[in-house]
Amino acid sequence: MSEHDRLGPPPIEPLSDVAWSRIERGLWSRMDAATSVIEPRRPRRWIWLAAPALAAAAAVLAFGGDGGRPAVEGTARLVSGAAPTTLSYGDVHVALDAESAVVMDRMKGAVLERGAAWFTVAPRGDRAAFVVTAGDTLVRVVGTKFRVTRSGEEAAVQVEHGTVEVQFRGATARVGAGEAWTSRQPTAVTAARVAESEIELAPAPAAVPDRSPGGRAPALTAPARPSSVDRNPAVRPDRPPSGTRTVPPTSARDADAATYHRLEQLEVRDPRAAIDGYLALSRQSPRWAEPALFAAARLSADRRESRARYLIEIYLTRFPSGANVDDARKLLDHYSSQGAHK
Amino acid sequence: MRTAPAAVREHDRDLAQRAASGDRGAQRELFTAQRGAVHHALFRILGNNRDIEDLVQDAFFEIFRALPSFRGDSTLSRWCQTIATRVAYLAISRRRPMTVDLALVEDTVVDDADTERQVMLREATRRLYAALERIEAKQRVAFALAVVDGRSLAEVAELTDSTVIAVKTRVWRARKDLMKRASKDALLSSYLAELGGGSHERA
Lengths: 342, 203
Prior knowledge:
The structure holds 2 protein chains of 2 kinds. Chain A is of the alpha+beta class. Chain A has 2 domains: 130 residues, Jelly Rolls, CATH 2.60.120; 113 residues. Chain A is built from 7 helices and 13 strands. In chain A, strands 1, 2, 3, 4, 5, 6, 7, 8, 9, 10, 11, 12 and 13 form a 13-stranded mixed beta sheet that branches. The longest helix of chain A has 20 residues. Chain B has 2 domains: 89 residues, Orthogonal Bundle (Rna Polymerase Sigma Factor, Chain: A); 83 residues, Winged helix-like DNA-binding domain superfamily/Winged helix DNA-binding domain (Arc Repressor Mutant, subunit A), CATH 1.10.10. Chain B is 68% helix and 0% strand. At the A-B interface, helix 1 of A face helix 2, helix 3, helix 5 and helix 9 of B.
């Protein structure tokens, strides 16, 4: 390689300001949580009393616990990857969605760093209210089951039963069973039943830029039939038709719908993780397998991955009459024509 | 090894003491001052920003936990990078190697020489870190810091808490392994040579 052709060292890709604030926020949460659990050392004789209790707890978890995940009492940071996970924390049960993170602390309650979680909180009695913090949003709980969703600085709360008090930048709202609240409209509490209006934090129309050549924002609810590649003039002839969007099932009210929508949002920020998430969803959810597998194939084709063609072929084999079959065939045709030109 | 000026050492010690005592203002100051150095070390070893947010957070968490032991023998920046290097080493030694298809070479639309250079650099970087994924973690850390980042062996030895001889051996082994893997990859081979990690490297 001549001096003129020198490539130089690999560049350091900077982190965005949003990423730095996310890191800082998470860091201070962990620091606070770590500070609050420093307690004086107890006499060693308690070990002898604790041992049988620990053994009993281990037996319960092994044979009848919630998925075998141990209950945690100290400070814990729970981070989920492509699949959702659960945590029993004292008498609080947390069901964490995929691609989410929460810090649980005995003194301070929970800090939702990102993503979404269902919290089931036993009645507190004389104890202090359990508090979930999601950015500037504070959710105060006496005893209830509720869900908190966080996307950047925005948060949403929906309550299955009981009542929670939401504090947001000086304003307070009470959200009851079957009601929902979002930081986009902090003064309004939606009266609709939760089952009928699963709230999700979709990006605002121009908040998340769509980097696909089609230039369309990611679909957030069940979209209409996606426009074909031919109607998308921005698609370059030498690239897969990345403007296509997945057609999800008509109903988006199940738990997997939330995962699917979150993965759609993740496509821009971390496409590789989104593909992994889609593939995981396609394996675990019969209902969402079809759109999730196509989304993985479409995104993989967008990124020009070598496995894209393989994923499309699997999709067409598994779902020969799926809702996205036309687009899948177009993608496959594209690869076939590329192969013919080489 | 260069010694930091007395004023810098004094400032570092003072900031570390205040941060260690729980002063959130000092902790923020330390975070803001050192976040670039910590990210740089992590990125150089890992090769991308995927999963790096959690690792930056882990690194600073460890930094704040270890602050009471900071004596000011080295600069705060170097000390923070030592911890970041350890965090990166633990991360890559725990995870499974990623599957990367090295055979796939994409067609590229090139407008000008600089665009072509950028594309080549990106591809060469991708192949380099794909190859680094497959070598032993300590060798990878040593190679990334000494060859890719261009640090001296003595500095890498300090960052990895090992001897210069050990670092030299790791870099040599990593280079040998990488050149073997790059034998059928002209781009990676020439890029390794350019970085000083290939067969054309100075003795």
